[in-house]
Specification:
Helices cover 79% and strands 0% of the residues. The chain is mostly helical. The two termini are 21 Å apart.
Length: 468
């Protein structure tokens, strides 16, 4: 966010004029709405409390999400699933995940992101805790687990749109970058925690314990947020009502003409395709790496390969943000910095992914996977931020489109990799597919990515922001 603010102030005097003329962007009612939102911002102490709470919530989100990939090998042995069936169970999560991105943000904008986060966390936490019960008491575990993962995707799909909505409503602009970057690191922390603790519980108490602990902790988190931060809101009635969905008043609508004009921009198409490639390869690695290590190195300790790569990813993500911020502050072109970060994320990481094809020792495999996952986090300073460079006035909606496409491609990639493993009997085909997808996305981004604003109508001689 700090990167964008620097360029927002310095990139163009015309853009500055847009900021100085709020009426052009919002109209009279829009100005009143902006003032009302600013008057309801959290104080700094409150914002710090929420930052810690949301960090913990995102951590638990990934604990619940990654529980199935960690337990997939053991469950497949117990229920006699093939690799293709395991891929179907793992991939069903993304079918649900891709359907609730936009609707999650839409509802959050009207009733408050904290309410959507609360209800969704309680639901997916309960679903996680009940997963072992569904598996054991259903006559067809493959059906119940596929359905459970689909519902998990539906419920967890609203998390990040709700975070973005909550941040825009409650946090002043100068502090949003810190909150979002800190909360976002919870994804790696959660994967790290469940990779270590989950692997130990899997070995000591069975796969069921992983789901019980992750689910119950998530429900406990939701209860504490409701009791102490929302002050028991909803005790005398529903937390979200039909009336509240329309209580935010009239909002601008993103017209079909503006959407078409936006999607005709090569830079926008490049961002969408690149994010699609990045997300699909990340989801594939997240889903199949535990199985790869179990199949290739059956005597290896699970906590090692489930912890070390994510332990590397956390400082790597923070380093990429600092590096990109430093380069831009030194006067380097923003588009060039974005491309450099994406080159590390998709280009250099692919080198280490290919090295996995010929890996024969466990320490070498862990080192290559750690390098791959660490470098992949550089996309947070590449394509993930580039969407805000291109379309700050509708970055949330555009990111929702990107994330939906990424989730949909994740479904296909996870299932396809399961088919390739079963058909070829080799993990090399999986790593080669990941490399090809990465190189394709990187080539498109390097060729067409820009950092200039495209959510403006230059033909009329003035800037007209696209609104939702």
């Amino acid at each position: 966010m700090a990167i964008l603010q620097k360029h927002g102030k310095n990139s163009s005097p015309d853009l500055a004029n847009v900021k100085e003329s709020p009426a052009d962007n919002f109209g009279a009612s829009g100005c009143q709405k902006k003032w009302a939102e600013s008057s309801s911002n959290w104080s700094r102490p409150v914002a710090r409390v929420w930052t810690v709470v949301l960090l913990l919530g995102t951590c638990l989100l990934y604990c619940a999400r990654v529980a199935m990939p960690i337990c997939a090998v053991t469950m497949a042995e117990q229920f006699q699933w093939t690799k293709r069936e395991s891929g179907m169970v793992l991939g069903s999560f993304f079918w649900g995940y891709c359907f609730t991105q936009v609707i999650g943000g839409y509802i959050s904008d009207r009733v408050g992101g904290e309410k959507v986060l609360l209800l969704s966390a309680a639901a997916w936490g309960a679903m996680t805790a009940f997963t072992p019960i569904l598996a054991h008491f259903c006559s067809q575990p493959i059906v119940s687990m596929t359905l459970a993962r689909f519902l998990m995707g539906l419920l967890q799909g609203v998390h990040y749109p709700s975070l973005a909505s909550l941040c825009s409503q409650k946090v002043v602009e100068s502090e949003r970058g810190f909150l979002m970057s800190t909360v976002g690191s919870g994804s790696y922390l959660g994967t790290l925690v469940i990779g270590g603790a989950g692997s130990l519980m899997l070995d000591l108490y069975g796969w069921e314990s992983v789901f019980y602990v992750a689910g119950l902790l998530s429900v406990l988190w939701a209860y504490c947020m409701w009791k102490y931060l929302l002050k028991g809101e909803g005790e005398n009635g529903p937390i979200i009502t039909l009336e509240s969905l329309g209580s935010r008043g009239t909002q601008s609508k993103l017209t079909r003409r503006n959407w078409l004009r936006l999607f005709k921009q090569p830079a926008v198409c490049a961002v969408i395709v690149t994010h699609l490639c990045t997300a699909s390869t990340f989801f594939t690695l997240l889903s199949w790496l535990p199985t790869f290590f179990k199949d290739t190195f059956p005597d290896a300790k699970g906590w090692v390969f489930n912890v070390i790569p994510w332990f590397v990813a956390i400082p790597s993500s923070l380093f990429s943000g600092c590096l990109s911020d430093h380069l831009i502050s030194q006067g380097f072109d923003t588009a060039s910095v974005r491309k450099l970060m994406q080159f590390f994320s998709m280009g250099v990481s692919s080198v280490f992914t290919l090295c996995l094809c010929g890996t024969t020792t466990f320490p070498t495999a862990v080192a290559f996977v750690s390098a791959t996952m660490g470098l992949t986090t550089f996309s947070h300073s590449g394509v993930s931020v580039n969407v805000q460079d291109l379309a700050p006035s509708c970055a949330g909606a555009l990111f929702g489109v990107m994330n939906t496409c990424g989730a949909f491609s994740g479904v296909i990639m996870v299932y396809l990799c399961g088919y390739l493993i079963e058909a070829t009997g080799s993990w090399a085909s999986v790593f080669m597919l990941i490399t090809v997808v990465n190189i394709l996305g990187l080539a498109i981004f390097l060729a067409f990515a820009e950092a200039r604003r495209v959510d403006i109508d230059g033909a009329k001689g003035r800037y007209h922001n696209i609104h939702i």
